[in-house]
Amino acid sequence: MTDTVTSPDAGNAGAPPEDGPILAADGTPLARSLNRSVRRQKIRALALIAPLLVFVLISFIVPIVGMLLRSVDNSVVPETLPRTVVALEGWTASGPDDTPPPEVYEAFVLDIQKAADERRHTVVGGRLNYQTAGVASKFRQLGRAAEDIDTSSPEAAKAGLIDVDATWGQASIWQTIQTYDGEYTTGYYANAVDRNLDVDGVQARPDDEAIYLMLFWRTIRLSLIITVICALLGYPIAWLLSNSRERNANLLLILVLLPFWTSLLVRTSAWKVLLQEQGVINESLTSMGLIGSPLPLMYNQFGTIVAMTHILLPFMILPMYSVMKTIPPSYVRAAKSLGATDFTAFRRVYFPQSVPGIGAGGVLVFILAIGYYITPEIVGGTTGIFISNRIAYNIQSTLNWGLAAALGAMLLVAVLVLYWVYDRVVGIDNVKLG
Amino acid sequence: MATLPAYTTPAQKIWHYGLRVLCGFIFFFLVAPIVAIIPLSFSAGDFFTYTEGMLTFQPDAYSLKHYEDALTNPEWTTAIWNSFRIAIPATIIAVTLGTLAAIGLSQRHVPGRRAIMAILISPMIVPLIISALGMFFFYAPLGNFMQDTLRLPQDLVEFIKIVLAHAVLGIPFVIITVTATLVGFDQSLTRAAASMGAGPLRTFFKVQMPLILPGVISGALFAFITSFDEVVVITIIGSQKVQTLPWQMFVGLREQISLTILAVATMMVGFSIILLTTIELLRRRNERLRGLTPS
Amino acid sequence: MTTKLKRLLGLMALLFALGATAAACGGSGDTETDDAGAEETSDDAAAEEEAAEEDGAMEEEDGDDEAMEDEGGDSDIELTLVSWGGAYQTSQQKAYTEPYTADTGVSFIWDESSADAVAKIRAQSEAGNITWDLVDVVGADAIRLCDEGLVMEIDFDTMVAPGDDGSSAVEDFGENLVSDCFIPQIVYSTTVGYRTDLVGDTPPTDICALFDTETYPGKRALESRPLNNMEWALLCDGVAKDDIYDVLATPEGQDQALAKLDTIKDDLIFWDAGADTPQLLADGEIVIGSTYNGRLFSAIEEQGQPIGMLWDAQMYDYDGWVIPAGLPEDRLQAVLDFVYYATDTQRLADQAAYISYGPARASSAPLVGQHAELGIDMAQHMPTDPANAENIFVTQYDFWADYRDDIDTKYQAWLAG
What we know:
A: mainly alpha
């Protein structure tokens, strides 16, 4: 599109003046007229976008941001244990058996007694248990015992609490509370990259407890593989569709749409029927004598790749097809008539014009793949699951929404960065025609 | 297939047929898994495997009991009906707003295009489970408001909530496909139309719309299937009253594997074949009547 | 294409106009619905039907409101129960809700969301929009919900019927009361099933057959979470039964269990859903695998599959009701009335006629009769039957509430490694 002046009143033309600033047809200076035109275009563009933007902002972005803010929210600790948090200020443990001053115990027992009345003591226990295993049951136990602890003096409170459980006589549990006493925490993000936040700062987790970075890496790697395979398989199909006569193309399109219309759950189950050890493929290969023992085709990464490629392939073909359909065949014919070989005509003329289709399909497939979790869950076994499976697990099973939000936020940032890179490198806007 | 012109070189012939064989394999990959499960839906058994009897074509190994279940069991019939009545309005909202916005985005001067793009396609990027929870915190109070203040019936409120949520999930697909089509769109055409006196609406419907229609239709298909096949958001936001087919299947797969799932799937496949074929036949008839040859 | 195209264009034109107005207020999706239906001629009838339905629903709803205002226990009350779907939910309908509806006229809506219940109750509670009245969950979930204060505490003296043998409810449920917020209905167990045709002449007799790949070669299925698997691994690695949870609380013990599981890792398939293992066994995909005892019962007795099962080292677990905290008074009364009825001795025994899980009350055991359709004596298929319960594990919920996150992280790292 070019920036010609298209103001509707341009028709009331007067003759342009001989000198002075260049004037538009209606007599205003051209620069101002152009500016006005650009402004009008901006307003028109925004007016077209606005309804959707407002809808998405209100019903999606705002609630999602709220959800993601849980990744730093730690308010349950200072709200439930306000006195303890204040009393613990300034204390540093000198050794594993060092205990805070008795005043801390008194404050803590008072906090817990109040919390137990409101049944909140277990909530804070659950929160701290995400950081130090074993804390939850100590807090649960206090729900019943706290009432009977003597709070007449700080010393009595200390003795009473340690009497309930010896854990309260050790430094570690107090250090945990101290580390997580603020309104906000970076602890969930530390967990999300296989680190622990404790009193000495961020520490790497032992190797046998590190899973998230590995899962991130695997998710991105498998998604890329799936996207590339989809592009390789989808391109010839989309080309065939857009270069066949329309009646043939429409028949072939039915074959593409057929799997597309079949439920994801059904297609995943279908792959189960095909890929399992006693499944159709293994049985056929065995009966033909091609293999001696069944091949492990599912419950691994191979299964995930095959099933997800199948499920996502239509998402690659359809955008490619809709772009390729708009490429006029005359361009390739013109190239050939000017002496280009078939290959050169394809490479120099056809392919560049089809790039937006590959881009759109690729981004679509990659982004869909990266967030998938139902298919990997069913056919991926243990080596084929994605990061989303763990996010879902933290939301549904452990109720550790803070960690889930941190993982989700990181995944989101990763995708946004990739999208930004894509936009810079390929750039929907930067692809020039012809 | 069209016959090749006489001047085709041998290399071109090999290329021509080689490509078609390759495409044949890819089509086989696309369709075979679905074909493979169709016979299973006629199994007399209850498990997802071919029984001995089925492989040796014993009549008593086959039955229609799963079809009977799918068509008479109200759980399944309601689920099928719910799926359609949610997916259709969700698609319409997504396509309408999405196409408008995509046209807006493809204008030359759009302040903050990248940010807007990122916002509009974010429903596709955010992991579904997080979207589902986030949206729950938007739709639950909205539902309360509609029920308590606007006095809307509960069923309608449940329905509106899920339609809007599904529409949001479908929007990125519309944006992406329509924007991609618009890149190839020659804006001089709209100017030509405008210069010949067509109003903006007329220009849009007579010139722009027909050209970007493939993109709009494929966006609509994505939006529809997104809603029709969606199982995560609906289980969080929806209630039993809007239980859809995927939800019903998911419960089925998890709690009690039943081949009714395959019977429903087979019927859906049959339905889409009939639908797609009908459209194609109508189109051909229409062309014949108008004496046009396919382009 | 052209006719179709014109119609489509017409449709679009209308919708753009509608969409613009609708988006402005962002909340009138119903307007489009009706128009959408009307646009597509084939859907005309359907759209009218829908409209009629909605009107009907509206009237019914109004009726409900009035009735609720009149009297709490009126017959127009509708309760939303949440369960697992499938055969288990059917057994609850037959044993609990159908007779209750016949007696009182209270009707029920079933939501098959128990698998996501923990997250959903929390979300409902935070959003102040509690739509569920009574939720069926497993013991571990009940404890987590109770800890979070999302479900109400139960007063077992007033809210639950005493046993019909004269014992108080607390005595009658005994050790099965694992949480203050949880009324157990059934005892189920996770145990092991095997293909009778794939184990040769020496069918397995104890749990360690899972780890014996020499005698029983082939794939085996275990649950994808560490619960049960870790206990069995330690048991088969020679740890005494009473010491298992002490050992498992230490990092060394966790490593020991994982090392034992590692010996069969190449042969393992992991399941998530209760329906998986029976399917895998039926397919001949695995030779042995863990699952719920009721699933094995149905595969063996109802479907006649060549499957056998073990009761050795079965892991006891509970499934029961929780009531979301913060229900409005009228709904709470209706729920409590139903719960009192549905958890009494007779009702729990009745459920065993439809599914092979043991009633959680001791007093129900003598009343367990025959399977409603197959006519099999059900008592011998109960995990609680003395013959089956010779060697049982009771899942230690407190332990798992504390260590689940930690052990699970290690377990997942092991799985992925």
